[in-house]
């Protein structure tokens, strides 16, 4: 292992991304000039965002947009509002978007952006003023055929609407395709809310079939019960899987016999504000109170090391590290969060015989439907949810088949295979 490969043992996301790229490039004997282009973003845009706060004071925030590569099409990726947004993180996320879009085979490159801010500390008016100023600052570097942002951490359809409105002022006309993740009434796509979770279920179904495993009765633990985790839980439940554990940032529940109703869990969380509160402390009551089962409250970290068939990290980066990797008992990990395994954990789990379905494949359903939204906007069309889901299923199954076949052919992990598939598709358009 050379120095660059050793570098990725670090939890620094950009170092990890670099290591993943160079490892796959070596196996493909990638053109050195193409490798150089992929090793650094095309551009990093930094903007200053002065905002008048409700108390009359002026505060200035830092925003950024990283455009990694556009060989396959416009830059594409989310905008996040978070106090810990930093350049290395955003560069890595933009690189992973380049790879993800190539794996799922949509005509986009990779981009990512954000503002260093805690939006929870803002009033609605302050958030709008911040967003509109950010939108004005990035309007010259985005556009339907240039760079198409989307929601990410702490951003939503309303924030996308404000940015789209500022872009419309900049270009002089309404342009829905400049951004995705919009509300349905603003040109958003049917099925976008469910897309990432549903796409993950499609990817898992293909891999289980390849491994000759029947999903019925397989036990699943999901860390993260936000949009992605909650929809995934529903779809896996419908596949016949037994959902035995769920968690959010405040804790979770473990029901070895299987949670009887995901809808009841959702309603309970909305009422109590957390999943752990849905269980009687020190008791054994079921979420629906319709029958008695053996269950208990657990921490979010404990979800990852339960005796289950499938573990789904759907919350945070670096959730599984060298410290807790030896405790993982599942034989399949479905990565629904971005970068939930450190490089060291990934290598350890591979030696333990664990099949890891990588994030750039597993959670690519969201960007696939973002592409569908963009395509509908560009063609002035409106597709039904059924049509969107059918197209998503075909995309996910095709991509998963390609990654699995590459894995078998090259005798490498699914993660390495995903990067090989992505780089081959990028190389195909490179000249």
Automatic annotation (TrEMBL):
Site feature: Important for catalysis: 152
Tagged with keyword Nucleotide-binding: yes
GO MF annotations, alphabetized: glutamate dehydrogenase (NAD+) activity; nucleotide binding
CDD domains per UniProt: NAD_bind_1_Glu_DH
Taxonomic superkingdom: Bacteria
Binding site for NAD(+): 196, 227
GO terms classed as biological process: L-glutamate catabolic process
InterPro entries for the chain: Aminoacid_DH-like_N_sf, Glu/Leu/Phe/Val/Trp_DH, Glu/Leu/Phe/Val/Trp_DH_C, Glu/Leu/Phe/Val/Trp_DH_dimer, Glu/Leu/Phe/Val_DH_AS, Glu_DH, NAD(P)-bd_dom_sf, NAD_bind_Glu_DH
Keyword Chloroplast: no
Catalytic site: 112 (proton donor)
Domain Glutamate/phenylalanine/leucine/valine/L-tryptophan dehydrogenase C-terminal: 189-429
Keywords assigned by UniProt, alphabetized: NAD, Nucleotide-binding, Oxidoreductase
Binding residues annotated for substrate, in chain numbering: 76, 100, 370
Similarity annotation: Belongs to the Glu/Leu/Phe/Val dehydrogenases family.
Name this polypeptide is given: Glutamate dehydrogenase
């Amino acid at each position: 292992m050379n120095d660059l490969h050793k570098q990725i043992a670090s939890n620094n996301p950009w170092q990890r991304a670099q290591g993943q790229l160079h490892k796959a490039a070596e196996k493909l004997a990638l053109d050195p000039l193409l490798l150089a282009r992929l090793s650094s973003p095309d551009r990093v845009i930094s903007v200053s965002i002065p905002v008048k706060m409700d108390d009359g004071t002026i505060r200035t925030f830092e925003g950024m947009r990283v455009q990694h590569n556009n060989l396959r099409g416009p830059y594409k990726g989310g905008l996040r509002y978070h106090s810990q947004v930093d350049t290395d993180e955003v560069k890595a996320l933009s690189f992973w978007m380049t790879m993800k879009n190539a794996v799922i085979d949509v005509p986009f490159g990779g981009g990512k952006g954000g503002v260093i801010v805690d939006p929870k500390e803002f009033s609605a008016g302050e958030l709008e003023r911040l967003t509109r100023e950010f939108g004005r600052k990035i309007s010259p570097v985005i556009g339907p055929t240039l760079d198409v942002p989307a929601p990410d951490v702490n951003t939503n359809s309303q924030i996308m609407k404000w940015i789209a409105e500022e872009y419309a002022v900049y270009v002089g006309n309404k342009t829905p395709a400049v951004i995705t993740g919009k509300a349905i009434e603003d040109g958003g796509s049917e099925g976008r809310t469910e897309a990432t979770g549903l796409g993950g279920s499609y990817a898992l179904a293909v891999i289980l079939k390849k491994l000759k495993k029947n999903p019925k009765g397989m036990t699943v633990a999901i860390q993260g019960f936000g949009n992605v985790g909650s929809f995934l839980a529903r779809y896996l439940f419908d596949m016949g899987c037994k959902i035995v554990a769920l968690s959010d940032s405040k804790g979770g529940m473990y029901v070895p016999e299987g949670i009887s109703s995901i809808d009841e869990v959702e309603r309970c969380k909305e009422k109590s504000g957390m999943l752990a509160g849905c269980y009687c402390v020190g008791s054994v009551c079921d979420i629906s109170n319709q029958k008695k089962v053996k269950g208990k409250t657990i921490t979010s970290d404990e979800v990852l090391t339960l005796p289950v068939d499938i573990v789904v990290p759907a919350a945070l980066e670096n959730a599984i590290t060298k410290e807790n990797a030896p405790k993982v008992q599942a034989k399949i990990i479905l990565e629904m969060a971005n970068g939930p395994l450190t490089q060291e954990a990934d290598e350890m789990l591979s030696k333990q015989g664990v099949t890891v379905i990588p994030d750039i494949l597993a959670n690519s359903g969201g960007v696939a439907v973002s592409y569908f939204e963009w395509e509908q906007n560009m063609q002035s069309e409106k597709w039904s949810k059924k049509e969107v889901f059918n197209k998503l299923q075909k995309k996910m199954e095709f991509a998963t088949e390609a990654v699995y076949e590459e894995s078998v052919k090259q005798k490498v992990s699914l993660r390495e295979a995903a990067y090989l598939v992505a780089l081959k598709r990028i190389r195909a358009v490179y000249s």
